[in-house]
Amino acid sequence: MTSVPVTPCIRQLLDAEKIAAEKVAEAKKHRERKLKLAKTEALAEIEQYRQEREREFQNFENKHAALRAKITARIDMETRKKLDIMRSTVTRNRKSMIEKILELVFKIPEY
After folding, report:
1. What residues contact 14, with CB distance under 8 A and at least 6 apart?
2. Which residues, 6 or more positions from 6, have their beta carbon under 8 angstroms from its beta carbon?
3. Would you list the DSSP string of 8-68?
4. 59-110, pLDDT tens digit by residue?
């Protein structure tokens, strides 16, 4: 095999190709760095948004927890009132009800 003589034009083309390959490699590295930076920034932004939404949710929960506690307390109070009314009614009518039940039990029907 014979070696092809390298002329100045071919040398210039080879050098230009080498420089172009280096620039392409440098551009790829630069692009990769930019993509990595963009990804990091996006993740930070996502985390910040998540925290903000979590705070809003906690505020919503706290606000409605107080309302829920008020409603529960009101229901408990109303239930106690109704139970007290029922107890007083039972106490008030106990004697007459026992008398009526005994009357019905002891009453012997005539056939």
Report:
1. 6
2. 14
3. HHHHHHHHHHHHHHHHHHHHHHHHHHHHHHHHHHHHHHHHHHHHHHHHHHHHHHHHHHHHH
4. 999 888 888 888 999 999 999 999 999 999 999 999 999 999 988 888 877 7
